[in-house]
Amino acid sequence: MDRPVVVAVSGVKNSGKTTLIVEMLPHLTAAGLQVAVIKRETADENALIAQFPEADLILLEGFKHTAWPKLELVRPGNSERSVCDASTLLALVTDLPLQLPGVRRIP
């Protein structure tokens, strides 16, 4: 496996990105993965990613308009539709009956 794997956790403001990452981290580290998290900054994400060569997985918080593969949160009362390019989506994380062709839905 090439290191690191990079996945963005995206969504509109207050969609639950931080909460999802915090909930995921114990499961990922229990599986033996070294995980780094980068919150959206004005710096070039490639320069930030390069600072974690030992990581197995880097989770980017935000980065909804980038080409990185994404988990996108879409929450009732916060957003009603996906705002990311569907070609970059690994899955939609939502409790809405939202479906996009070829994109997995995770409740």
Helix/strand order, N-terminal first: EHEHEEEE
In order across it, which strands form the biggest sheet? 2-3-1-4-5-6
| Structural class by sheet pairing and helices | alpha/beta
Mean pLDDT: 94
Can you describe what's shown?
By secondary structure, this protein is an alpha/beta fold. Helix content is about 20%, strand content about 30%. The protein contains two helices and six strands. The protein has a six-stranded parallel β-sheet with strand order 2-3-1-4-5-6. Helix 2 links the parallel strand 2 and strand 3. The chain is globular.
Short description:
This protein is α/β, with parallel strands linked by helices and 107 residues long. The chain has two helices and six strands, in the order βαβαββββ.
Task: List strands and helices in order, with pairings.
Layout: E1 5-10, H1 17-30, E2 35-39, H2 45-49, E3 57-61, E4 70-74, E5 89-94, E6 104-106
Parallel strand pairs: 1-3, 1-4, 2-3, 4-5, 5-6
